[in-house]
Amino acid sequence: MIKSADNSDIIHAIARDCLGLDGPLMEALVRINQRFGYVPKEAQAIVAEVLNVSQADVAGVTGFYSDFRSAPPGRTIVQLCRAEACQAAGVASVVTEVEAALGCAFGETRGDGAVTLEDAYCFGNCALAPAAMVDGQLIGRVEAKTITALVKP
Ligand code: FES
Question: What is the model's pTM?
Fold first, then answer.
């Protein structure tokens, strides 16, 4: 949720900066997601107004791309690849161990805001499967203990 007029002003400015660009809707949403870590619902209305597109268009794009979060992420973001090569390399057991160790399921953010666990589908690191991304750091042949050690308190 956008809690201040300052954030609303920032979102207006981001959207206005994207006017005239090719694909301004996608660019505005990417910039907002980078700035806040997610795309607040209120931001969707602002973007729609500034770019003169429907709120349904904005909601459709944000809903289609999993990189656009609808809620603030945890302090550590763990993405674990669930695609074929990583499945063959045993990612399912890593998932089970990580969920048990962190007390959080994939697709969720832990209640204390420490960590968000997300599924991903191929980082292009298949030769080193199973692969994970922790706060943007790619890790091959990942083990659960490697992931849990990187979670910020
Ligand atoms: S299938 Fe997991 S990194 Fe490619």
Answer: 0.82
Rg (C-alpha) for the chain, rounded Å, is: 17
126 CB less than 6 Å from ligand 1? yes
What is the residue range of 50's domain? 5-64
**pLDDT digit string, tens, across residues 68-101:** 998 999 999 999 999 999 999 999 999 999 999 9
| Ligand 1 close to Cβ of residue 129 (< 6 A) | yes
d(CA 52, ligand 1 centre) in Å = 39
Judge whether 52 lies within some domain. Answer: yes
Write out the two tokens for 142.
């990942």
Residue 110 located in a structural domain: yes
- Number of independent structural domains in the chain: 2
